[in-house]
Amino acid sequence: MTPNRDFYTGLVATAFFALVLFVLIPVYVRVPSFIPGFAPPPDMWPRVIGWVGLVMGVMALVLAVPKMRRQSGKKVLSVGAYLRANRVFIYRFIWMGLGFAIFVYLMPKIGFLTATMALLAFLFIMTGDFSKRAWMIGLTLLFPIFLYVIFTEITHTPFPHGKWFSLARLLHLI
Amino acid sequence: MWNELLGAFFAVATLPNFVAMAAGIWGGVIIGAIPGMTGTMAVTLALPFTFYLPPVTSLLLLVALYKGSTYGGSISAILIKTPGTASAACTVLDGYPLARAGKGGKALNMALVSSCIGDFISNISLIFLAAPLAMFALRVGPPEYFMLMAFSLTIVASISGRSLLLGIISACLGLLLATVGEDMYGSFRFAVTEDMKSGLGVVPVLIGLFALPEMIKLAVFRPEEDTQAMKLGDNRLSFKEFQGSIKSIIRGSFIGVILGAIPGIGPSTAAFFSYSEARRTSKNGDRFGEGELEGIAASESANNGCCGATMIPLLALGVPGDVITGVMLGAFMIHGLTPGPMLFQNNIGEVYSLFIGMLFSSAFLFVAGTLTAFGFAKISRIPQQLLLPCIVILCVFGIYSVASSPFDVAVLLVMGIVGFVMMVLNIPAAPFLIAFILGPMFEDNMRRSLAISRGDIGVFFQSWISWGFFALTILFVALTIRREWQKWRSTSRATN
Questions:
Q1: How confident is the model at residue A105, as a pLDDT?
Q2: Closest alpha carbon within chain B to A121
Q3: What whole-number percentage of chain B has pLDDT above 70?
Q4: What is the pLDDT along chain A (174 residues), one digit of tens a residue?
Q5: What does the UniProt keyword field contain (chain A) (predicted)?
């Protein structure tokens, strides 16, 4: 990884806690107009945490600069250069996020069982190593069915069947 | 007392009771070892089956499930870096590095031995110290809880790894995430969607943070080297290694007993507290987090040390110490037993049978742990590109089955991404986790105390228990500042 990592950690932490303090708390923490007796308002604790986090983020940022300069031969990589240098990793990371989001979206549409099969296939593909192709195909088809049977029979979990189509119902019929 | 205990011994030593205990321990170990499946789930699932069993047999089955699942959490924590239960989160810190170094068997053995000793001490404590500890627990109100939580949060300093600053940032993230949902006065915080109004569950956050980042790391970086180094390797735990950890085991067991006896604290806090203490006092403290057997000993002895102790307030006062004993309270009621002081007068035979049965179950835990753990060790021989995707799917099924909530699955996956980003940025996950678990208790007790005292902070210093925890907090903060100062000075000297 890059020697600039500590700097970016501080940058991300500072940006995140600033966002929490100045945007998220005012918008998403409602303070009631009347609080019975003496009780600290609901935004007190998140604000305390936000300020501590912000101060720590700034400190991490400031302390990282001299170290980063030492390690990178007096040169500091810009954010753009950092992103370009790691773009393959960033694309793969975005793919993972998209995969998870699509899984959550499709779960009620195609059913839990089909969605988990699709997710497992996607994860196998994302590993980039297909030396155990037969195992991957077998597990994609059978492992979710095995878990589905275990959880429905033992814990009686009502997994969603899916609005578009349901593999689980098909299996029940078989 | 001794006559009653002897009578209880013969009452318990029957085949149905032994079968119930063995089944409970075995089932608990297996369920605890599966990520997403919790001890609470195991006990709840078994509850309907106990309708058909005698009271003592039913209770022994449930207690055995509780103990088995608490230990079982350590198996997946050590072998696949996924704590099966929240209380095993600390075991990951040293267990997984040991497994990667080919010493998974040694780590499992240490976890088992520590768990059994912690469990045994907890049972003995339950028998002999139930009344005095219950009296102590009765005197702990919101201000004392607040001080205890403040003290517990100081362990962030000792689990932060290479940077205290990043550890505090991680703890702030955990504390902030714990505020999502409805607060104690009915105000909603960060409830962006309807599902978020009830807050984020500990289990999806925990599993997401520990189990999923490994899969995302594999997918993003695709390491070419063989990361499958988790062979059991050197399995034997030498007497010298055991002797080196005995202090931490005994101390962890008693931490488990004391914190377990206080309702609402539970094994997770006990494990982190014990781990932190072991790290502070051990001569190998610097190696904690890199594969130190003593770390596993401290964590596992404390979480199993809670098992018997959580029964103390339940039996003596009728107050469940945690969620599992809450379920057990229902089991007592189903069988016509009402926990509380009257239980010791009206059903003394059942109480002593339960005590003796719990001692037997410690022995069953050792046997079942030995056999089951090494069966699970086969997981370590499966290639990462097959194992990690299957773990994600197992977690998805496990999380969905807890509350049948697609939102929990979404939380799991989002936390996986958050955990990966933290891993890339070198932010340690352990402080996040401890802050997430302790945060709500810390805030609730602070706000409740201030509401009771009408804003007077003097409420936090009205009892010797509060003063004791306050003094310990100040002491450890001062020691941490001193340690960080020394570290900074030595680094500055080295670079100049």
A1: 93
A2: B389
A3: 84
A4: 455 677 888 899 999 999 999 999 999 988 877 776 667 888 889 999 999 999 999 998 888 887 777 766 655 566 677 777 788 899 999 999 999 999 999 998 998 999 999 999 999 999 988 888 999 999 999 999 999 988 888 778 888 888 777 776 776 666
A5: Membrane, Transmembrane, Transmembrane helix
- Section B228-237 average pLDDT: 59
Taking CA–CA distances from B196, the nearest residue in chain A reads A28
pLDDT score for B172: 92
Q: Find the helix or strand (DSSP H, E) in which B188 lies.
A: strand B188-189
pLDDT tens readout for residues B393-448: 988 988 888 778 899 999 999 999 999 999 888 888 878 877 887 788 788 888 88
Residues of chain A contacting residue B41, judged by C-beta atoms under 8 Å apart = 155
The residue type found at B249 is I
> Any idea which of B13-22, B48-57, B400-409 has the lowest mean pLDDT?
B48-57
* B32/B41 Cα distance (integer angstroms): 9
Q: What is the rounded CA–CA span in Å between residue B185 and residue B448?
A: 10
β-bridge pairing B181-182 and B188-189: antiparallel
Instruction: Calculate the alpha carbon distances from B123 to B57, B61, B379, B420 in Å.
Output: 17, 16, 32, 40
Q: Report CB contact under 8 Å: B393, A126.
A: no
Note whether B187 contacts A: Cβ–Cβ < 8 A: yes
Element of type H or E holding B492: helix B464-495
- A76-99 in b/e burial notation, b at 16+ Cβ within 10 A? ebeeeebeeeeeebeebbeebbeb
B410: closest CA of chain A, how far (Å): 6
How many domains does the structure of chain B reveal?
1
Residue B61 CA to residue B47 CA, distance in Å, equals: 9
Helix (H) or strand (E) holding B279: helix B266-281
Q: How far is A56 from chain B (nearest CA, A)?
A: 6
How far off is chain B from A38, nearest CA to CA, in Å? 5
Alpha-carbon distance of A90 to A92, in angstroms, equals 5
Q: How far is the C-alpha of B475 from the C-alpha of B483, rounded, in Å?
A: 12
Is A49 in contact with B495 (Cβ distance < 8 A)?
no
| ipTM for this model | 0.89
- Overall residue count recorded for chain A in this entry: 174
User: What is the rounded distance in angstroms from the CA atom of residue B84 to the CA atom of residue B87?
Assistant: 9
| Single-letter code of the amino acid located at A16 | F
Q: How far apart are CA B12 and CA B26, in angstroms?
A: 19
Check if B219 contacts A (Cβ < 8 Å): yes
Cross-chain CB nearest to B401 (options A36, A129, A151): A151
Interface contact flag, A49 B451, Cβ < 8 Å: no
- Which residue does chain A place closest to B418, by CA atoms? A97
Whether residue B41 contacts residue A155, with contact meaning beta carbons closer than 8 Å, is answered with yes
From chain B residues 306-365, the ones with a CB under 8 A of any chain A CB are none
Domain of B66, in residue numbers: 2-495
- Where in chain A are the domains? 5-85, 87-173
Contacts of A40 in chain B (CB under 8 A): 446-447, 450
